[in-house]
Structure formats: structure tokens, C-alpha cells
Write a structure and sequence with these properties.
- The complex is a heterodimer of chains A (about 350) and B (about 625).
- With about 350 residues, chain A is mostly beta strands.
- Chain A is built from 1 helix and 27 strands.
- Chain A has one domain: YVTN repeat-like/Quinoprotein amine dehydrogenase (Methylamine Dehydrogenase, Chain H, 7 Propeller), CATH 2.130.10.
- The radius of gyration of chain B is 25 Å and the shape is globular.
- In chain B, strands 14-15-10-7-6-5-4-3-22 form a 9-stranded antiparallel β-sheet, with no helix packed on it. In chain B, strands 8-9-16-13-12-11 form a 6-stranded antiparallel β-sheet, with helices on one face. Chain B has a 5-stranded antiparallel β-sheet with strand order 17-18-19-20-21, with no helix packed on it.
- Chain B is an alpha+beta fold.
- Classes of the chains: A mainly beta (about 350), B alpha+beta (about 625).
- Chains A and B meet through strand 7 of A and helix 6, helix 8 and helix 9 of B.
């Protein structure tokens, strides 16, 4: 998931004079270049890993360096599915992995498994950018929330069903503290009070695999499912419409917005490969020419600085496209399956 | 220090054991008569323990391996041999640590066996590996049992250390608390709603070894007694589900070989060790890690006698539970109603059908006694070879597209094969009454592999396809009658032989085992099976006549149903989707107890198991953490 810092205006004292705001705003827009991002991935680089076998490759979080090489960060763990950073301090980040939720406070040098035996195999984790001590965790038993940087976890599931709360994905609304969408076994649930209660906002026939918020308009979100199609909301998740041009017989694994172009979207699918839209989701095209055949795409990502489209082909390699999927080139990470791309805005030093 | 007395016994016994080979595996079948004298029984047990330890200690000298593994290291440490070599080997192995419970367990074995023998450097290498190498907890119940037991023991061994000294990032005390809480929760589940990985052919080791390590090495007295009580619980179950040491009936988890060559599983190691009534398996497998401290456990006589000294046929009914279902199910842990009927000649076992585990469950069978089980296929059953991505996703937190293919590379090669025999299915319903089984199948359109596979052993004699529709055969001293409800073809049974790995998962080749499979390609289907002892009839023809005379009617549309008078005079009516009826009364599964039978009894939710045999009684009370023995008056 992509954690963006709150807009600078939100950091100012509440009684800042309007004229000063205007001046500051002008100054920032004149002086500040678009934020640069650090590119992180969570990748398994180990074919046919089974519990007990020796890990002979390096898996887990990787950071792309200046030479476009991938530098491993932290634990060698093929099961890390997601990572989320504290927007105040990027040395503090959290992972969702087989053993539970993990946290580092020193940029990955040391770690602690923050959850206990009763939470296992989470697939997604998300820091609330407006309340960075609060962390949300999606796991097969439901949703867990930590109010204290992972030290303790609450199973705040009021409103979720007893059965059917399997949660694959969780995403915090960057526009409002405590507003979170959770993709579950057959529904999307919304909380607007930091998980004190949840309500169903979309019923689906299958598991919701990914939910993403538009970087251009915080009211627009996309969700993709396991064989129940793709869905869009334009009112912050309250109502959803199916995207009829997206195929729905097979699983859609994730969806990505292009931060450089509000019309460009991409979906990754093991069956369909890469699907792209260049009209805001109305029409979709398979963009697999030049991609490895078979094009079993595990994850797509879009670089917010360049609009470069990435596709991880399952246990084959990472591919990238400079023309939004029309042509592809293999850029390494042979044998990998990338579970998530994270483009982290660099902090001003 | 805990319980090291057995090393003295081990050394004393060495003098009488051969220096090579695996004696009991290669020897004739052991005498299965009951050993009445407790001292003799104990001495024989320790002799078997020592056979394993000695055999493993000499793995390099014998030429079975170039270097010692951690089982061999532990065995040599126990015997006080090759201490310097053990230290060097530990340091070498700790330079490339493994990744989960299957590494943690052997490492704990060496760590505790070598507490006072390994060099400081070797002990430090183990300690360092537990600091620097992140361990994956796994995703199954046996993974968790091993992981948390090993973490518990290592945290006791190195107390008062901060989180920076552990891969978990948690202090010794935090690791201990979490591990203990999990293990108690797991024991609580087992003793209230039933075991999850019940009656496992292999995974019994993954539970028994951790429990014995608690008995042997835990400082916490609560965990020691819990370990001992759980061992008794596991072995009482093993005793009641074996015939001549070979595990019978349904299995939550088994494999392609063990499901037909029933003896060939780790459970036979434990029968051999504890009961002495069957040969051990080749190499002792994970039994090596059990043997290291096996002298610290003394099998209660009451359990020994359940396994070896029976008073005729008995029926045991148990409540178990499915593997946890994350999604696509109204329940997280589905109840499993298990029945086992055992005579001197054969055993019939089943659960009610449905999915206990997504990959490795075996639902029902008739198995018979043979003079020597090695290489024999003494079993008959049918199954729907269900293969489903969604079935996997119910239990595994995975995406839909890769796991069906992946499990074949992970040691379950038959999963997506139409002729597979290790299978449970949501479209199978099974009912058992004593030695009669009715299995009904109603497979919807669009389901992969819409067929039923019936297994017919190479060891059967007088296989006869009777014009009545019954298929008659004899296995050992057991007559068998199998009635397929739909047409079928015969195909050769292709087994799986493991090949050396090329580094990309498991590899197998298939080979003709000599047995065959009744393949019935009909979605509405069923099997009726009736077993009986040959001694009950004048001859085979007499048995056939008796079976033909049984009133039987069935239909397949709209759903399969059977009405049958069994050989035991029971009128049973089974209709797919409805509770079975016995002599007019519907079977009420809600009244099923945790254990109910002549040997094992427990109420659901009780945390208390009563084990009885003749005048002997042992009560395992997990509420009070007490073990009480009694000798009852006649």
C-alpha cells in the first residue's frame, strides 16, 4: 500500500491567517518539486517453498537503489505480504507476514513480532497517516487494530459477521483519521470511527483481493475481487458500481492507480495478466504482448514519479513498461513473486 | 537438570546390540503375545529405545550418511561418544540454519542433549542461530505444536534474556508466556472438542516428540505434567486404533503410500516402540528424535493392554474436529464423528464424510490383519478424488490459482490426479454400523474428477464379480463384500515412488503396485461394504450366500439412497443429505461424546479422559492436571 503524508496545510496551527496560508501555498507550489518516492517491494524469491525447507534465496522487503538494483531490507522471509511505513519516521515500519505483524524501529536492523499466537498469516497492514500510532491488520480471522504502534492488538470487529470476516486487504482513507475499508470474504466493510464499528458497503460473491484509493481524488476507490469483478466508488466507499468491462470469471489480484495520470489504471491477474484502462476505468485492455508467456501476473504497480508500469510474473521475473503495457522488458528478480509494491514519498531532510 | 538416568541404561544395553543394520526392521515380525511382567516389558521397551539410539549414532560409520545429522549428534551425545565431532558438526550446521519447526525440533534435541557435553562454542552457535535466524511458524496444527514447544524449551534454557537476543524480538519471558498460552489452548481444544489432526499416520510424531521433550526438559512443572498427560492421550488413541500395531480407520492426514501399505507410517514406529507388536519403519524416521529421550516415558499398562490384549470385538466412537476453516464455511472447526470397529481379524473405521483436511484426509476403510504387514496392502475403501482450489482456500490463506499445482511439488503428488486414493470430498457421506459401511456420493456438475475410486488390494484372493452386483473377496482371515452402486471399470493402481530431488520440490515416479482401482465415472454413486471373519462361515461360498440373502435396495436419482439389512441384523437406511437411520431411528450426532467405547471414555467439553482395560483404570484430568490410576474390583 502507498502511505502518503498529510497535506502540509494540515500540519499548520489551526488559526494560521488566510493570507499567510495563501503565501505559503504559493511558495510551496513554486519551490517544491513533486515528491520523489522510494520504491519498495515485498517479494518471495523462492520457488516451491514449504515449511521446513531451507531458504536458499533472499526474500522479503527490497528497496530499489540509485542504480536500480534491489537491496534487501530486514528479515529473509518469503511470507512478507505487505509493508506499511510510519509517515513521521520511515525507519519505523510494519509487515504482514506468516508469523503475524512485525515491526522495526531502526530501518529493518532489528524486528519484533508484535502479534501473538492468536493472529496468524495476515495479508495486509496499514498505518493511519493521520494517527500513525494506529495500525490496522487484515488477517484470515478478521481485523485487528493496534492503537500503540503494534504493542497491543484489539480485535475490533463489531459489525463484521461471525463467519465471513476473512480479511484479505485493508486500506486507510488518507483524507480522514480512523476511516478504513476492509476487503473480506464476500464484502467490503467500512469503519469511520477507527474500527469501533463496521458496516457493510458492498456485498460481493467472492473474496475482495485489493482495495485502493485514488491519489487524484480521495473519494474514488477501486476494488478487485476473486472472480467477482472490479468495483468503483466515487463517494468514498459508500456506494459501489461494477466495472462491466473488467472480466470477472477469474481472480483479479490487485489494482493500481497511476499517480501521474488520473485516467490510467492497471489490474494484475494470474489468468488475464495485465489489464489497463486509460479512460478512468470505463474500458480495459489486456496488455500482455511482450510479457512472459504464460502471463501469470501476481502484482502490478505504477511508479508515481515516472508512470512506469511494473508487473510481477509469478515465479518468473519482474517486468516493467514505459508505455503503460504496450511493450515490456524483463528487469530481473528471476523466480520471484512480488506480493506488493510500495512507493514511499521521501521525507524532507 | 532433568532426567538423564536413561543414558546409563543405554550404554549398558549397547553391548548386546549389533553394530550395524536396523535389527527390528529387518528381523521377522515380532512376537505379538502379551508381555505380562512389567519389568520385562520395560526392559524390552528400553532395548528398543537403545536400538534406535545406537543405530542412529552410527549413521556415518555404517555408510548411510557422509556426516552426522542432528539426530545422530543427539544420539552420540546421549551415548557420550564423539563429543568433539558432535561439537564441530553442530557448529557447521548452525552456520546454515533452517527455517521453521522442522529445524527447531532437531536443534532443540541437540541443544538439550549437549547441554553439558557440547563445547562452549558449539552451544553458542545454537544460541546464536536462535537469535539471528528468523523462524517461520508454519500454518498447520503440528507446525504450531512443534514451534511453540521448541520456543518454550529454548526460552527456558536461556532465561532472562532481552528481545534483542531472540529472532522473535521478544524476551525469554515473553516467548515463554506466548508459547505456554498457545500449548495450553491447543490442549484445551483437544480435550474439549477433539483432536484436529486426528489419527495421523505420520504426524503423530510431530505431537509426541514435542510432548516428550516437555516431559524431559521443561523446568515448568505444569508443562511437564501436561506433556505427560498429552502423551498418554495420544498413545491411548493409538492403542485403540491399531490392530497388531498397525493404525486403522480414517486419518485426518496420511499419504499415498501409507493409505494402502497401512503399516508403512511413523505410527508403526510408535506401536513398535510402545507395544512391541509390529516392525518399525525403515530408518525410524522422526522416531530417532523421540528415542533420544524415550526412556523418560513409561507407557501405562492400561494403554499397553488396550493395544495388545483385547477381549473380542469392540466399537470406539470419538469426536474430532476438522482443520480450521478460514472461509467458505459456516463453521471454523467442523465436528468429525469417528467410528472404529475392531476384531481380531479386521478393523472397520470411518468418519461421516466431508472435509477434515483439504489434502490428506482418508475417510473410511476396512483393513485386515496379516502375518507381516511389510509390503502388504491390507485395505479396501472408496473415495471421490476431489480436487479444488476453493477447497484449498477454505483451509489455506492462499490465492486461488497456484496451490493445486504447488501441493504436488510439496510432497502430495496425487492431489490433482483422477486416480488418487487419498481424498475426502464435500460430496461424500459415510455411515458405519459395526462392520458395515455405506458411502454415498452426489457430485454436482462441473466438479473436477466426477468419479469414484475403489481400492482393491493385490493381496486379495478369490476376487469374484458376482452377478448379484456384489464383489466378493478375501483378505487374510476376512471376507469382504463390496457393492458398487454404479457401473465401473478396472484400472491398474499406480503408486508413487520418490525420486532424488533436483532442488525444485519433491519428485516422484509412478509404478504399478499390483493392486487395482475400481473406477466408476458416475456422479451419483455409492459403495456398500460388509466385512466378516472367515471363522463365522463354513466357507467362502457360505459367506457369499449370506451376503446375497441380505435385503438390499437402492436408488441413485434424484439423490443416492440405500436400504440394507446388515450381516449383523441391523436395518440401515442412508439417504444422501439426510441423517442415517438404524432400525428406524435417526442417528443423532449431537449426542456423540468425546470418546465412547470399552476403553476410552470422555464427555464433550470435559477435559477428562478415562482409560480402562479390565480392572485397570487411568484418568487424565486436564482440569486438575492430575493422573490417577486405579485397579477396580472384579
Amino acid at each position: 500500500m502507498n502511505v502518503r503524508p498529510p497535506h502540509f496545510v494540515a500540519m499548520l496551527p489551526p488559526k494560521t491567517p488566510l493570507c499567510l496560508l495563501v503565501l505559503l501555498s504559493s511558495a510551496v507550489s513554486c519551490l517544491a518539486a513533486p515528491p520523489k518516492h522510494d520504491t519498495y517491494i515485498c517479494a518471495a524469491v523462492n520457488k516451491n517453498y514449504v515449511i521446513g525447507s531451507k531458504i536458499v534465496t533472499t526474500s522479503g522487503i527490497h528497496l530499489k537503489d540509485e542504480t536500480d538494483a534491489w537491496q534487501h531490507v530486514g528479515i529473509n522471509d518469503p511470507s512478507i505480504f505487505a509493508v506499511s511505513f510510519d509517515p513521521r519516521d520511515h525507519d519505523v515500519f510494519y509487515t504482514a507476514a506468516l508469523n503475524g505483524a512485525l515491526r522495526t524501529l531502526d530501518g529493518g536492523k532489528s524486528w519484533r513480532i508484535m502479534t501473538s499466537w492468536d493472529i496468524t498469516e495476515p495479508k495486509d497492514i496499514c498505518v493511519d497517516p493521520h494517527d500513525p500510532d494506529t495500525v490496522y491488520l487484515a488477517h484470515p480471522g478478521g481485523v485487528a487494530v493496534s492503537p500503540d504502534r503494534g504493542a497491543t492488538w484489539l480485535r475490533n470487529e463489531k459489525g463484521l459477521p461471525d463467519r465471513g470476516k476473512y480479511t484479505q486487504t485493508i486500506e486507510v482513507d488518507r483524507s480522514k483519521k480512523g476511516r478504513v475499508l476492509a476487503g473480506c470474504e464476500s464484502s467490503i466493510y467500512l469503519t469511520e470511527n477507527g474500527a469501533k464499528s463496521w458496516r457493510r458497503v458492498l456485498e460481493t460473491e467472492e473474496t475482495v483481493d485489493d482495495i485502493q484509493q485514488s491519489p487524484h481524488d480521495p473519494k474514488i476507490w477501486l476494488a478487485v475481487t476473486q472472480s467477482a469483478g472490479a468495483w468503483i466508488t466515487r463517494d468514498s466507499g459508500n456506494t459501489w458500481k461494477n466495472l462491466p468491462d473488467v472480466p470477472s470469471k477469474a481472480a483479479l489480484y490487485n489494482v493500481a492507480f497511476d499517480p501521474t495520470d488520473p485516467q490510467r489504471l492497471a489490474i494484475g491477474s494470474y489468468t488475464y495478466g495485465v489489464l489497463t484502462s486509460e479512460d478512468g476505468g470505463d474500458t480495459w485492455t489486456e496488455r500482455n504482448a511482450g510479457l512472459h508467456d504464460p502471463h501469470h501476473v501476481w502484482r502490478v504497480g505504477i511508479d508515481p514519479d515516472t508512470g512506469r508500469l511494473y508487473a510481477s510474473v509469478y515465479q518468473v521475473a519482474l517486468f516493467e513498461s514505459e508505455d503503460f503495457g504496450r511493450t515490456w522488458r524483463n528487469v530481473g528478480l528471476e523466480g520471484s513473486a512480488i506480493h506488493s509494491f510500495v512507493f514511499l514519498p521521501q521525507l524532507q531532510k | 537438570m532433568r532426567l538423564q538416568f536413561h543414558s546409563i541404561l543405554s550404554v549398558a544395553a549397547l553391548a548386546v546390540l549389533p553394530a550395524s543394520a536396523q535389527p527390528s526392521y529387518e528381523a521377522p515380525h515380532p512376537d505379538i503375545s502379551v508381555v505380562q511382567d512389567p519389568a520385562t516389558r520395560r526392559a524390552q521397551y528400553l532395548q528398543r529405545v537403545n536400538e534406535v539410539i545406537t543405530w542412529r549414532a552410527e549413521i556415518v560409520e555404517r555408510g548411510d550418511a557422509e556426516k552426522m545429522d542432528l539426530a545422530s549428534v543427539s544420539a552420540n551425545l546421549l551415548l557420550g561418544r564423539k563429543i568433539d565431532q558432535c561439537s564441530a558438526r553442530v557448529i557447521e550446521m548452525m552456520s546454515e540454519p533452517g527455517s521453521g519447526p522442522f529445524w527447531m525440533l532437531p536443534t532443540v534435541s541437540a541443544a538439550f542433549s549437549g547441554r553439558e557435553l557440547l563445547s562452549e562454542e558449539a552451544q553458542a552457535s545454537i544460541r546464536n542461530a536462535w537469535r539471528t535466524t528468523y523462524q517461520l511458524r508454519g500454518d498447520t496444527e503440528n507446525h504450531f505444536a512443534m514451534y511453540y514447544t521448541m520456543l518454550f524449551l529454548m526460552s527456558e534454557l536461556y532465561p532472562n534474556e532481552p528481545g534483542s537476543e531472540w529472532y522473535t524480538g521478544k524476551s525469554s519471558e515473553e516467548n515463554l508466556a506466548e508459547s505456554k498460552e498457545y500449548l495450553i489452548d491447543w490442549m484445551d481444544l483437544m480435550t474439549t472438542v477433539g483432536q484436529g489432526e486426528f489419527n495421523p499416520t505420520h504426524y503423530i510424531g510431530e505431537y509426541a516428540i514435542p510432548m516428550l521433550y516437555l516431559v524431559s526438559w521443561a523446568e515448568d512443572p505444569e508443562m511437564r505434567i501436561r506433556g505427560k498427560m498429552t502423551l498418554d492421550w495420544l498413545f491411548a488413541g493409538l492403542a485403540a486404533n491399531t490392530l497388531n500395531g498397525v493404525l486403522r480407520g480414517p486419518n485426518s492426514r496420511t499419504d499415498d503410500n501409507s493409505v494402502i501399505e497401512r503399516w508403512n507410517s511413523l505410527s508403526s514406529f510408535f506401536s513398535w516402540l510402545n507395544f512391541g507388536n509390529c516392525p518399525p519403519t525403515k530408518g525410524f524416521s522422526w522416531g530417532n528424535y523421540y528415542a533420544i529421550v524415550a526412556a523418560n516415558y513409561e507407557l501405562p499398562e492400561v494403554i499397553y493392554r488396550i493395544a495388545t490384549d483385547r477381549d473380542g470385538p469392540f466399537e470406539q466412537r470419538d469426536l474430532k474436529r476438522s482443520r480450521h476453516r478460514w472461509r467458505y464455511s459456516d463453521v471454523g472447526k467442523a465436528p468429525i464423528y469417528k467410528t472404529t470397529y475392531v476384531t481380531d481379524d479386521y478393523a472397520v473405521g470411518s468418519y461421516q464424510g466431508g472435509m477434515a483436511d483439504p489434502i490428506q484426509s482418508h475417510v473410511w476403510d476396512v483393513t485386515w490383519a496379516v502375518p507381516d504387514p511389510r509390503g502388504a496392502h491390507p485395505t479396501m475403501f472408496s473415495a471421490h478424488p476431489y480436487s479444488s482450489s476453493k477447497g484449498m482456500q477454505m483451509y489455506f490463506n492462499v490465492r486461488p490459482d497456484t496451490m493445486v499445482k504447488a501441493v504436488a511439488a510439496e510432497g502430495k503428488p496425487s492431489y490433482d490426479e483422477p486416480d488418487k486414493l487419498v481424498a475426502c470430498s464435500p460430496y461424500e457421506q459415510v455411515f458405519q454400523n459395526l462392520d458395515t459401511v455405506v458411502a454415498l456420493y452426489d457430485i454436482p456438475d462441473g466438479i473436477r474428477f466426477p468419479q469414484i475410486n475403489g481400492f482393491f488390494s493385490k493381496d486379495l484372493v478369490n476376487l469374484t464379480e458376482d452377478k448379484s452386483g456384489w464383489i466378493f473377496a478375501q483378505g487374510g482371515d476376512t471376507y469382504l463384500a463390496y457393492y458398487p452402486l454404479a457401473d465401473y471399470d478396472w484400472i491398474a493402481h499406480q503408486g508413487y515412488r520418490r525420486l532424488p530431488s533436483t532442488g525444485n520440490g519433491y519428485r516422484y515416479e509412478r509404478f504399478d503396485t499390483g493392486s487395482k482401482v475400481l473406477a466408476s465415472p458416475h456422479q451419483k454413486n455409492g459403495t456398500i461394504l460388509q466385512a466378516a471373519a472367515t471363522s463365522e462361515f463354513k466357507d467362502f461360498a457360505d459367506f457369499q450366500s449370506a451376503i446375497r440373502a441380505l435385503p438390499l435396495s437402492f436408488k441413485l436419482e434424484p439423490t443416492p439412497s440405500v436400504s440394507l439389512r446388515t450381516l449383523r441384523g441391523k436395518k440401515i437406511v442412508c439417504a444422501y443429505g439426510k441423517p442415517p437411520r438404524i432400525d428406524g431411528k435417526p442417528l443423532d450426532y449431537t449426542k456423540w461424546k468425546l470418546f465412547e467405547g470399552p476403553y476410552l471414555n470422555a464427555e464433550k467439553g470435559s477435559r477428562k479422559l478415562t482409560i480402562t482395560h479390565g480392572q485397570l483404570k487411568r484418568i487424565l484430568d486436564f482440569n486438575a492436571l492430575t493422573i490417577s490410576d486405579a485397579v477396580m474390583r472384579n
